[in-house]
Write a structure and sequence with these properties.
Chain lengths: 290, 401
């Protein structure tokens, strides 16, 4: 009974650990409401708090440390002054209004996996658990997704190559169609090692690699991560990844916490990323015409 | 000289043959020819798929495109050189054979090579050949990306874009079928049984054929995926809607035109039609069989009736094709047999009758006769006795102690 209480308590603390301003308040509340709590147990809670805090800072560091995307070649395009202006604007392509948090909810993005498969690095992004299943904090998901959409639009604006990944046969066709519709690329098949790291041998010639990889799921099976995640990191290709509660977000440049299994969710991601890419491309065309 | 011929005997040694021919002839002729050839090869050169510009725009080419253009140029130059050499070699060959170089065809070349370099090698593709370079060197893909290095195909990074495009199309069709099926169910309509897709007599194209079509290597697992996907599509109730797509990837099981070239009947003095099959064989037996139509079912074997054979089995052998094709009282049979025993002779007559009956039955019966094995020559013969053994397989009695 007490064990269950501690577990619930720990989860509660996890949820609020990353919300800095509530941190002290909540700890105090816990202590007040449970005066019988032993000091040793309090210590445990504090350790958990520290850990969660560390996790959140690490992710923040990771996501802010994204490399600046330089155009792959010296292509003719919009003027340099226009380009700087585009870069300076915080949300030039207004990706903010592509979706709302309610859209996320309707697309079932908040569903995570069961508690047992929870990856501890995903703790900062979760809201809690219900009936033994993880629930994502959609406010955070929205924030990360907007960041990801922004970078996608910028790369599309600069004529970058975007490659979509998906390793579930059920949703593969959806992703391929999405890539086709927005004039980008898809890889939904078995990943032959070395496509990025040994491209010259694989394609028989010097080949331009993608400028952005978008993973609609980052796992190949339920246990192993997609090799392309590692290979992109090796080759310095920025990545966007939908990370579910059982995924490791460490190697992903722009992780987006959310459900990566339901067709509804995948459809939603396809829609928003396609929209962002098309906005980037339209702007590019407009500026080229100037 | 001997050494050079020795080299030429190596398989696929096209170049050596041509070099040998080159070295043995005048150079003056080569010059005029190479000028001719270079003017003709411009048409046949590989389409690079991207405009080659010089000057300012060269700066905008990506590394990938530059590398491709270099490769394409090298390949073009190589192929041009090969074409020139082939033309010269062809002319020399024609002169050697004392024929007109202008009208020297590929068939003539093959004959000449076979005559000049007789080969005892069993494998035909291992013998010396001389073919146009387009047939000798494998086909290459044109550029798959534009000047900025951006690939054309949306599945380019899978490395097998054409193959996966096929799979993509299959799924696209399946999804269409599902939608169509739903709409038909809502209207309470069933698929038309008259239009049902008939795939009998055809099979999915082989892996090698698929590889040739997509110009990509396809692994066994990928080929199985292809077959599974196509099976799934063709098993759908409304699959006849995408018949064209499915039939593109099917080939007929056998080339039927060869089997169905039936012998033309001769008109006899009495006005009846007859077909004679010469040298019908089975085991050691050999003979000629004549089928005469119309007839009454009269059978003559070496001047006797069916009683020529004492055994029931032999008589059944002879009657079987007639009964099978329902012609037992409609034709007369005449057979002259030599050598062999009763079963061999009966088998030879059976084969002769079946072979001749093709001229008097319709296409459908002919096909069922083929399926029944009546039109297949029986190659089985007596196996020789081996030394150290009692017979072909039987060993001598041997007791250790």
């Amino acid at each position: 009974m007490e064990g269950a209480f501690i577990l619930n308590l720990t989860l509660l603390v996890f949820i609020y650990a990353t919300r800095d301003k509530y941190l002290c308040l909540e700890t105090a509340t816990i202590y007040e409401s449970n005066p019988n709590l032993l000091p040793s147990k309090m210590l445990k809670i504090r350790n958990v708090l520290n850990f969660a805090e560390k996790c959140s800072t690490r992710t923040r560091l990771l996501s802010s440390g994204a490399p600046q995307i330089a155009p792959a070649i010296d292509e003719p395009g919009p003027k340099e002054s226009v380009k700087t202006e585009v870069l300076k604007h915080p949300d030039y392509f207004s990706v903010r209004d592509i979706f709302t948090v309610k859209d996320l909810f309707d697309a079932r993005v908040h569903y995570g996996h069961r508690e047992g498969s929870l990856e501890s690095r995903m703790l900062p992004y979760i809201y809690g658990s219900r009936l033994g299943h993880i629930v994502f904090d959609l406010d955070k998901t929205a924030q990360y997704l907007r960041q990801a959409l922004n970078i996608t639009a910028h790369i599309a604006y600069r004529d970058g190559i975007v490659l979509f990944f998906m390793r579930q046969p059920q949703n593969a066709h959806l992703v391929e169609t999405c890539a086709k519709e927005c004039g980008e690329f898809a890889h939904t098949r078995f990943w032959r090692g070395g496509i990025f790291t040994n491209a010259e041998k694989q394609f028989g010639a010097v080949t331009r690699l993608p400028d952005l990889c978008i993973f609609f799921n980052t796992l190949t099976t339920i246990l192993s991560q997609h090799t392309a995640v590692r290979d992109s990191a090796k080759m310095g290709i920025p990545t966007i990844g939908i990370v579910d509660s059982n995924c490791n977000p460490n190697l992903i440049t722009y992780p987006v916490p959310g459900n990566d299994d339901s067709p509804a969710a995948i459809e939603f991601y396809c829609r928003v990323f396609k929209e962002a890419i098309l906005r980037g491309k339209t702007k590019r065309k407009e500026h080229e015409a100037l | 000289m001997m050494r050079k011929i020795g080299i030429a005997f190596r398989p696929h040694n096209l170049l050596n043959i041509q070099n040998w021919l080159l070295s043995s002839r005048k150079i003056l002729e080569i010059r005029t020819l190479s000028a001719q050839a270079s003017s003709t090869t411009e048409i046949g050169s590989i389409d690079t798929g991207a405009p080659v510009e010089n000057g300012d725009s060269k700066k905008n080419l990506s590394k990938a495109m530059k590398a491709y253009l270099d490769r394409a140029r090298e390949h073009d130059e190589f192929m041009n050189a090969q074409r020139v050499e082939f033309e010269i070699g062809k002319r020399h060959l024609a002169n050697m054979m004392g024929e007109n170089p202008e009208t020297f065809t590929q068939a003539d070349i093959d004959n000449a090579i076979e005559y000049l370099f007789p080969s005892g090698l069993y494998q035909k593709h291992a013998r010396p050949i001389m073919k146009p370079p387009e047939e000798v060197f494998p086909q290459r893909k044109a550029a798959e990306f534009d000047e900025t290095g951006r690939p054309y195909h949306f599945l380019f990074y899978t490395g097998r874009s054409n193959f996966y495009q096929v799979l993509y199309d299959v799924v696209e069709h399946i999804n269409e079928m599902y939608k169509f099926e739903d709409s038909m169910t809502r209207k309470n309509l069933q698929p038309d049984p008259m239009l049902k897709l008939n795939l009998s007599g055809t099979e999915w194209i082989a892996k090698s054929a698929l590889e040739f079509r997509v110009v990509e290597t396809v692994s066994d697992r990928e080929y199985n995926t292809f077959v599974t996907a196509m099976d799934r599509l063709s098993n759908m109730p409304f699959a006849y809607k995408v018949k064209d797509f499915i039939m593109e990837y099917r080939v007929s099981l056998m080339n039927q035109s060869e089997t169905y070239d039936a012998i033309k009947p001769q008109i006899r003095e009495d006005g009846r039609e007859s077909v004679t099959v010469y040298e019908c064989r089975r085991k050691r037996a050999i003979g000629n069989v004549t089928v005469i139509s119309p007839g009454t079912g009269k059978i003559t074997i070496n001047g006797q009736g069916i009683s020529y054979f004492e055994g029931i089995q032999e008589r059944e052998q002879i009657l079987f094709p007639l009964i099978f094709s329902n012609m037992q009282n409609k034709v007369d049979i005449e057979a002259e047999m030599q050598n062999g025993g009763p079963s061999g002779q009966a088998g030879a007559i059976r084969y002769g009758i079946s072979w001749a009956l093709r001229s008097f039955v319709d296409q459908e019966t002919m096909e069922s006769m083929r399926l029944a094995g009546l039109l297949t020559f029986d190659i089985r013969v007596r196996e020789r006795k081996k030394p150290g053994q009692a017979g072909a397989r039987r060993k001598f009695t041997w007791k250790k102690r």
